Amino acid sequence: MIVVVGSPVGRIVNGRITLAGMAGETARAAAAAGAEVQLVGRVGDDPAADALLLELAAEGIGHVAVLRDPARPTPVEVEVEADADGTDDPGPLDSGTEPTVPQADPIELDPGDVDLGLRYLTEFVVLVIEPPASPDVLRVAIDGARWANAALILVVDGETPPDVGSAPDTIVLEAPVDDPDGAFATVVGRLAAALDAGADPATAFRDVVTTSGWAAATSEG
């Protein structure tokens, strides 16, 4: 089983909210590759969250460790289009200009969220940690991976990666600034699925990057 630590966000597409964000798209790609996936995250207590949880279920992604937070709304990405002057303004998507999608910031987890989720989801083979993640969240998640003897995929957002040398089979990936079509998240999900299936980490990383055409990913560990 794969556990993805990170909160999903929504995206409005054709008038409906769909699953988006790095954690959600990573989980989707891993599930599409045939893996059993559980998401540890946090959403609001609103209609957007209802839509995301329904889509997680439809995609075959477990969400027993996705918590509801009535104090914060579920983040939702809204498509906008670039005007001729280069500014981004909301507009119809059929006007002939290329739409852009400002990425919404997912709700951050706290260490207790991650500890609770990993105590409940005990039998996992791969743990994926998505940004943003505080040092305390990282510490709890890395300890959980070590306790479960699980492979660890740590996605960082350009900052100096924490010391994860004591975690088993660690792969560190630096996320791009923007991933509007989910290409990087798909790489992460497919890599997690390959590790879950028993592939050698170095071989799995090379094969997934080669077949996806993603050249910007790097690994350590």
Model description:
43% of the residues are buried. The strands form three sheets. This protein has a six-stranded parallel beta sheet with strand order 5-4-1-10-11-12, sandwiched between helices. The protein has a three-stranded mixed beta sheet with strand order 3-2-6. Helix content is 33%, strand content 25%. The model is unreliable at 87-97 and 216-221 (pLDDT under 50). With 221 residues, the protein is α/β, with parallel strands linked by helices. The chain has one domain (2-212): UDP-N-acetylmuramoyl-L-alanine:D-glutamate ligase. Helix 1 (22-32) packs across helix 5, helix 3 packs parallel to helix 4 and helix 5 (183-196) packs antiparallel against helix 6 (201-212).
Identify the overall geometry: globular
Mean pLDDT figure: 83
CATH topology: UDP-N-acetylmuramoyl-L-alanine:D-glutamate ligase
Beta strand count = 12
Secondary-structure-based class equals alpha/beta
- Measured between the Cα atoms of the first and last residue, the distance is 21 Å
Structural domains: how many: 1
| Spatial arrangement of strands, main beta sheet | 5-4-1-10-11-12
Task: Report the sheet with the most strands, covering strand number, pairing sense and barrel closure.
Answer: 6 strands, parallel
Binned strand content: 15-25%
Top CATH class = Alpha Beta
Task: Name the helix and strand elements from N-terminus to C-terminus, one letter apiece.
Answer: EEEHEHEEEEEHEHEEHH
- CATH 2nd-level architecture: 3-Layer(aba) Sandwich
Rg to the nearest angstrom?
17 Å
The CATH homologous superfamily is named: Ribokinase
- Sequence stretches where pLDDT stays below 50 over 5 or more residues: 87-97, 216-221
Q: What is the helix fraction of residues, given as a range? A: 25-40%
Total count of helical runs of at least 4 residues: 6
